């Protein structure tokens, strides 16, 4: 039985993770973490009576194999460091980690030979979109990314958009050219990652969509994925939990294991 702690358990994704763990015969939910909550009715959150509710790292003294984290960008680094320090394998979905923080976490886990994963997106459509974009990037001069999320999202650009831009840049091995004569007093051309423009839209009515648009002389290519239910992310989380139990290093990106 794989023993799991879910961090951020009362959030939109945390509740999906709790349900996924409860429904999987190979997993056991042993604890949940949120530093803000100190008293709750377990039934409101789909928690069995024997699941421990933690609101401080110092209380976490139980044996656990996996730390699933869907919390907030400002907390994920410390949460992941804590899990690694307790030899609990991190499965991290929370966005907002910088490249420096990600490498520090990788070094910490790898030096302990501890399996784990940090994935900007656990959805199969998004992972395939990133893979296809990386392939297309070799054949096109310019790319722009449009990501659309629900209005409660705390960070922009999304972790997925940033990761897509990073993969495109890696494939192209150069900064994309910008028009030096362009004028943009309202900042409508979007954010910039090595010349790849990223446009972030926040609107009710959406969960998470991303579109990568490539252009070259006389042709263009659009790759688009849409998320219609957060349950779709759980296929990737379930797969990742099983996989990191067999690994002894921290994997960056679900694309490395599917
Ligand atoms: N990798 C992937 O596939 C996906 C990643 N995400 C990412 O997951 C994260 C969570 O998203 P979502 O569920 O929509 O957000 P929510 O705001 O719904 O949930 C975040 C939860 O984290 C809790 N929280 C606050 N501080 C801490 C802390 N220090 N430690 C643990 N939990 C804490 C919040 O509690 P309270 O409400 O009490 O403040 C809240 O319940 C985001 O970064 C999002 O980008 C989302 C979807 C897919
Ligand atoms: O906040 C979200 O909802 C999502 N966050 C992740 C990200 O920042 O890319 C993954 C997905 O886009 C949903």
TrEMBL record:
Pathway(s) served: Amino-acid biosynthesis; L-lysine biosynthesis via DAP pathway; (S)-tetrahydrodipicolinate from L-aspartate: step 4/4
Binding residue positions for NAD(+): 8-13, 93-95, 119-122
Keyword NADP in record: yes
Subcellular compartments: Cytoplasm
Domain Dihydrodipicolinate reductase N-terminal span(s) in chain numbering: 2-122
EC number: 1.17.1.8
Matching InterPro entries: DapB_C, DapB_N, DapB_N_CS, DHDPR_bac, NAD(P)-bd_dom_sf
Keywords, sorted A to Z: Amino-acid biosynthesis, Cytoplasm, Diaminopimelate biosynthesis, Lysine biosynthesis, NAD, NADP, Oxidoreductase
General function of this protein: Catalyzes the conversion of 4-hydroxy-tetrahydrodipicolinate (HTPA) to tetrahydrodipicolinate.
Oligomer status and interactors: Homotetramer.
Name of the protein in question: 4-hydroxy-tetrahydrodipicolinate reductase
Species assigned in the record: Companilactobacillus keshanensis
Biological classification of the source: Bacteria, Bacillati, Bacillota, Bacilli, Lactobacillales
């Amino acid at each position: 039985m794989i023993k799991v702690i879910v961090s951020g358990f009362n959030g939109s994704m945390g509740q999906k993770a709790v349900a996924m763990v409860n429904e999987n015969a190979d997993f056991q939910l042993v604890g949940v973490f949120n530093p803000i909550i100190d008293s709750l009715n377990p039934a409101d959150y789909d928690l069995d009576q024997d699941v421990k509710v933690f609101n401080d790292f110092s209380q976490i003294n139980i044996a656990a194999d996996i730390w699933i984290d869907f919390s907030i960008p400002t907390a994920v680094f410390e949460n992941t460091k804590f899990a690694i320090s307790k030899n609990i394998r991190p499965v991290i979905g929370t966005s907002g980690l910088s490249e420096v923080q990600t490498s520090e976490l990788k070094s910490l886990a790898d030096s302990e030979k501890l399996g784990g994963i940090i994935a900007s997106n656990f959805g199969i459509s998004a992972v395939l979109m990133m893979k296809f974009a990386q392939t297309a990037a070799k054949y096109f001069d310019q790319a722009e990314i449009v990501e659309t999320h629900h209005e409660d999202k705390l960070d922009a650009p999304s972790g997925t958009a940033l990761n897509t831009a990073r993969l495109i840049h890696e494939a192209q091995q150069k900064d994309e050219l910008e028009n030096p004569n362009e004028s943009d007093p309202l900042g409508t051309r979007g954010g910039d990652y090595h010349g790849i423009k990223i446009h972030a839209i926040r609107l009710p009515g959406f969960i998470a969509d991303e579109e990568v648009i490539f252009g070259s002389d006389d042709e263009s290519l659009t790759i688009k994925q849409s998320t219609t239910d957060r349950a779709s992310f759980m296929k990737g989380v379930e797969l990742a939990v099983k996989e990191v139990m067999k690994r002894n290093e921290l994997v960056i990106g679900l694309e490395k294991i599917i």
